[in-house]
Each structure stands twice: as structure tokens, then as C-alpha cells.
Amino acid sequence: MARAGLNRGRVVAQAAVLADDIGLERITLASVAKHLGVRLPSLYNHVEGLEGLRRELSMLALRELAGQLGAAAVGKAGKDALRATADAYRAYALRFPGRYAATVTAPAPADDDHNEAAAAVLQVVVSVLHGYGLAGDPVIHAVRELRASMHGWADLEKRGAFGMPHDVDVSYQRLIDHLHVSLTQYADEPAPQ
């Protein structure tokens, strides 16, 4: 019998808190059960093992990230939308490092729910890129450029890898300025052969 008040949402929420505290890779079902004050077998009533928990955590984080990006982009276009969504992405990755780590791996192709959660993030980014006049294949390339830049930045910043005695925020603003210039030029560039 499941413990009163214990449900999938509560299990995943506790895993999210733990992932942010100790790191996604260190999450175990035993650690989640311990923090919930339940026995390990109780979790199997709510998640399908560690892999199922990680999937649920990824979907939670993707939905949160999509919400943050969407809220940041509302009413903005072009460079303002780019900067706002990039700022929201950076803030989410730094504030919730474990959850953010759960967003990085692509869902399995047949996992409709997980793909829907990932698509919500993509939809916001594509909307921002439409503000640059991008459509078709250039959008895919621009999405990859933007994601690689933002993920790389967030990962390095989270690890404390920007140790030089210069203002990190100035470097970050320059990155966004360069991305803006690159995206502005995308529509005029011929496709790579």
C-alpha cells in the first residue's frame, strides 16, 4: 500500500531538489526514499525505477525551462527576445543545476510525453528565431548554434571555469551580441554545401 500523500509528483519534486543539491548523476532511488522518509519499495508504486525517475525529472525540468523561456520572451522580438530568453536559460541552469542537467539528453523517439516536453522548449526558441526572419533549415542550424553556445556557457559558468579576473557578465553580454549578429546574418547566407 502506498504511503498517504506520496505520489509521482511528490517523488519527482524531491528528486529535483536532490538533483540540484547533490547533482543529477548522484541521485539514487534510495536517496530519494530516504529524503521522503519512506522505504525504497514504496517508490516503485510511483516511478519505473531509476530510469523512470530520471525521465520524469527531465520532463519536469523541460516544462519548467519552457515556462521560464516563454515568460521571458513574451512581448519581445529580435535582440530583446534573444537576450531575454538567453538570460532566462542561463538563470535556470545556474539556479537549478541538477534539473538543468536532466534537460540535456534527448528523449527516446517513441516517448511522446517526453518529446512533447522537449518540444515546448524548442517552440519558444524557434519563435525567437522567427523574429530574425529565419524559417526552414536555417532555423535548425540556428537552434543548434544557440543551444551549444548557451549550454557551453552555462556549463562552464556553473563549474566555476571562468576564473580570470574579468567581469563574467561583460563576457556573457558579448556572447549574446555575437549571437545576435550571427542570427541577423543567417537569413542572407547561402546554405553550406
TrEMBL record:
This is AcrR family transcriptional regulator. It comes from Arthrobacter ginsengisoli. It holds the Pfam family TetR_C_33. InterPro entries: Homeodomain-like_sf, HTH_TetR, MT1864/Rv1816-like_C, Tet_transcr_reg_TetR-rel_C_sf. Keywords: DNA-binding, Transcription, Transcription regulation. SUPFAM superfamilies: Homeodomain-like (SSF46689), Tetracyclin repressor-like, C-terminal domain (SSF48498). Residues 5-65 form the HTH tetR-type domain. Signal peptide: none annotated. Residues 28-47 bind DNA. It comes from the Bacteria.
